[in-house]
Amino acid sequence: MKGPVYERPRTIENKEEVSIDPTVRQLLEKAEAEGIETAWHRLLAQQPQCGFGLLGICCRNCLMGPCRIDPFGYGPQRGVCGATADTIVARNFIRMIAGGAAAHIDHGREIALVLYEVATGKNKYYKIADEKKLIAIAQRLGVPTEGRDIMEIAKDVAEIALRDFGKQDDEVPAFVKAYATKRRLELWKKLGVLPRAYDREVTEVMHRTHMGVDADPLNLLLGGIKLAIADGWGGSMVATEFSDVLFGTPKPIKSVVNLGVLKEDYVNIIVHGHIPLLSAKVVEAARDPELVKLAQDLGAKGINVVGMCCTGIEVLQRLGVPMAGNMLQQELAIVTGAVEATVVDVQCIMPALANVARCYHTKLITTIPIAKIPGSVYIEFTPEKADEVAREIVRIAVENFPNRAKERVMIPKEKMELWAGFSVEALLEHLGGTLDPFLEAVKRGDIRGVVGIVGCNNPKVKHDYSHVTITKELIKNDVLVVGTGCWATAAGKAGLLIPEKAAEMAGPGLRKVYEELKLPPVIHMGSCVDNSRILVLLGAVADALGVDINQLPVVGSAPEAYSEKAVSIGTYFLAAGVDVHIGVIPPIYGSDVVTNILTKEAEKYGLGRLIIETDPHAAAKIMLDIIDEKRKKLGI
Ligand code: SF4
Ligand code: MSK
């Protein structure tokens, strides 16, 4: 007997519903005409998605399973081991945090190791680009700086950071202690969620979610919160702070965003992934006169490096490198037919890129031993041979230019100017060295509150729509929006990162703030690890006002979240005391207990609440209400 025949979805009927970005619609047409599938087609092929998975009530943590709980109460209410829906949902949720936190922690470790190698003279390819930042970090950590050689300071700072990853004592990691506010540290101590070492917290979550260990949903969630704290104030903080030391602390910088940054007559190289160790070197190598000449000899005008996802943002915010797009544009960039190489490191790189690249002349170049993709060209990157590898990669891209099929090239025209590079240091400098003018504007009500919008695209959500709608709605109501990652790219494409344009869309309060302080209503603070910058800012504002972070008129939002990293980021904002909106349904509705803890009871513990709302207008309204309520309680 024959089963039903699987039909691969080849077309998306209504492309208007897929994205607000015209480049996506144009290139989806081209992809379909050329028989190429994208994430949107594969999402269709997955319908209907598993209801147990959506509710978080399936478990395959052991070989007695897989087990699933019947959400309607007719079937099994316990797994083979006896785990209930509450246990299973909580375990699954914190395993997502473990995946996300581990990614950030590994990222932080890579950067810290390079700083250590630079400080000890073992790596000559990188340098201390920002001594002032290094000294500021040293002072926070209590490392003596007076009259000392900068390399000695760097060595001490790197050693302290590296110890925090794998130390065995129960002390709070030095970075967490140095960067979190006193009030938060006290609260976390009371709740028993003070982390000890970053790797240890990842291991502990994997351990406690093993069959036969932790079955208590609240205890499990607190374990997840402890790990998320280790991510935000630990792994991610190290990644951000040391990237500033090695590559420079971002300052406002102008560039261009969207697929129109690809150039028809140039060799186009996309850097995609997260860790700037590679992308910064590719940018450098592409400026090498010998390689530029090679490109010209092969008929190109030059070499054009553009960014995708957060490693793109790392080189955008420091070097002004144009951004090709955000997460859901990675396949479409290749569909333009104009990309000689997509060079990737880690995270958010769809394995499907190899299939798309195969349909064109594009070389997909993977570089990291833990991130190989069948069908890609693998050129191993290590910081010890950074320059050679980067040059080799650029050479491969250049030599691939003559293979481009000119008749298949279609580069969308759309591109938009944007301003990025608003680190905390740059913001402070912008305000004249003190937060006071900002705080005054908040007290006066010109700035009603602040919302931090973070990361990601998700094909379940109309691409960029929620990001842009929420941002516009908030600034119209005088709420300053700061953010990172794929939100920032969406905001840039919509023109929201052109200060004067955003000011025109903003309410009278924010417009006044822009006129008086030149503070834009919408602020690009960096890549997804740079959410740590928002934590630093929140801590500084709370301390300046003499209150705890959970009292501030501040909300977090992840309107189009997809990744486990977003789950970890959202959770560390909850740990900071910030209410966090998510625009995609997280897999927790299978447990009333877990849903209740995360969406309601968390507040009782001094943590933020999770707000689940898929409609961007309704979400913005909820955020405005929270801001008003907090202002009222603060008496402003
Ligand atoms: Fe089933 Fe328990 Fe094993 Fe999970 S841990 S698969 S619920 S037996
Ligand atoms: S790249 S984690 S989709 S922000 Fe950082 Fe974008 Fe989210 Fe990846």
Report on the architecture of this protein:
- The longest helix has 35 residues, at 85-119.
- Helix content is 49%, strand content 10%.
- The chain folds into three domains: 85-247, Substrate Binding Domain Of Dnak, Chain:A, Domain 2 (Up-down Bundle), CATH 1.20.1270; 259-408, Rossmann fold; 417-634, Rossmann fold.
- The relative contact order is 0.12.
- A six-stranded parallel sheet has the order 6-5-4-7-8-9. The protein has a six-stranded parallel sheet with strand order 13-12-11-14-15-16, sandwiched between helices.
- By secondary structure, the protein is of the alpha/beta class.
- Bound molecules: iron/sulfur cluster and Broken Fe4S4 cluster (MSK).
- Residues 274, 309-310, 326-327, 348, 455-456, 485-486, 527-528, 563, 565-566 line the site of Broken Fe4S4 cluster.
Q: What's this entry about, in short?
A:
The protein is of the alpha/beta class and 636 residues long. It has 26 helices and 16 strands. The protein folds into three domains: 85-247, Up-down Bundle (Substrate Binding Domain Of Dnak, Chain:A, Domain 2); 259-408, Rossmann fold, CATH 3.40.50; 417-634, 3-Layer(aba) Sandwich (Rossmann fold).
